[in-house]
Amino acid sequence: MTHSAQDLAQRTTELVTLPAIYHRVKQVIDDPDGSVIELAKVVAADPGITMRVLRVVNSVFYGFPGKIETMSRAVSVLGMQQVHDIVLATTVTAVFAGMRPERMDVHRYWRASAMRGLLARAAAKSCGLLDAERLFVGGMLADIGHMVMYMHTPQEAEQALVEHRTSGAALDELERNIVGCDYAAVGEALLTEWRLPRSFAVSIGAQIDPARGAPHEFEASLLHLARHAVNYDAQLEESARIVANASPAAWQITRLEPQAFEGACAEASSSLAAVMGLFFPEYA
């Protein structure tokens, strides 16, 4: 029996939903009249989220001088969009952190996800992207489709992975043949079900073939490069292997030089331990 991405996403939303605090934050962000003060009040009303956001803001990951002690100050310094993205990252990881899907090494999964997020962010900064922080969240969520597949179709998902490792055939093609859909399509379907910002859903859905991700092909290209750079153990591949395996379109769209990408890899690797401590302390 094969499965559609939409079916797997709908089955997941019956088990897992984002907390109300995220939807209240998104409502303020989407409101043309939403204000810094209103957003700070919404986040501050949830002590758990407030604590997590302030931990992230005051970490070496952001490197702000001085300590930020209140949500109003955090929103003023970071801006509304970045606070939204931090809330999204912390709520999604918190929702899935307790999941232990059959046949899945969850520790390895989250380490690789964190590394992809860091690398996408570092590469975006190398490209001069103003909202590079958004790519951290995109990279962290880029493999969420595999979490869903291992929740609902663990045997088929594992079979595709084993065949990929032994034969060298493309993982997404094997998943489409064995499961009925690939990780990118499942990730896009879930983020669409959850009504997350469309840019995340589109870029994650197009990470295999970035050219089809318009108008978010740039973000999709960065996620594509990050995936080819990070292996299953969250270790970085050799640069020559990354260049050889990644789509030429991704290099063309981002205009990244492999040497600059190597620098992004080094930056991402140096931050992994700190980010694991922030978002996944149980696995750090």
Automatic annotation (TrEMBL):
Gene3D superfamilies: Hypothetical protein af1432. This is HDOD domain-containing protein. Residues 15-210 form the HDOD domain. It comes from Methyloversatilis universalis (strain ATCC BAA-1314 / DSM 25237 / JCM 13912 / CCUG 52030 / FAM5).
